[in-house]
Amino acid sequence: MITSEKGRVKAEKSGGNVFADLGLPDPERELLKARLTLEIYRLIRQRGWTQTEAGKILGIQQPHVSALMRNRSGSFSVERLMDFLTALGQDVEISVRPARGRQGKVSLAA
Fold first, then answer.
1. What pTM was computed for the model?
2. What is the Cα 57 distance to its own chain's centre?
3. In principle, which of 8, 76, 85, 91 could form an S-S bond with 80, CB 3.0–4.6 Å?
């Protein structure tokens, strides 16, 4: 976001990954974690569980579920988030294929 002299906000088009747009380290991993966390949130909400009930199924305490529900996955690894999804009855599939360009990317299809 860039502001002009008059205090107006100018918008910039995103490159598709807000974490990269902000210049944060490991933006692909952070985007993947955000997407996995969103799926966990949706499943818990869809089932109408309390955070305590969800915590019992995920094997974590309620304050950690609360953090997940607010999209704060910082302390959880991608692997742990995938474990949560399998505990919620979801299949998680990882596929590896040749990249179109010089460097590959990480993505999530839900």
1. 0.79
2. 20
3. 76
Cα–Cα distance list, 32 to 4, 10, 74 (Å)? 33, 28, 12
Per-domain boundaries in the chain: 33-89
Q: The tokens of 98 are what?
A: 């040749």
Q: Which residues pair with 2 in a beta bridge?
A: 10
Provide the token pair at 74: 């910082």
DSSP secondary structure of the chain: -EE-TTSPEEP----S-HHHHTT-SSHHHHHHHHHHHHHHHHHHHHHT--HHHHHHHHTS-HHHHHHHHTT--TTS-HHHHHHHHHHTT----------SSSS-------
pLDDT in tens, the chain (110 residues): 555 566 777 777 888 889 889 999 989 999 999 999 999 999 999 999 999 999 999 999 999 999 999 988 878 999 999 999 999 999 999 888 888 888 777 777 76
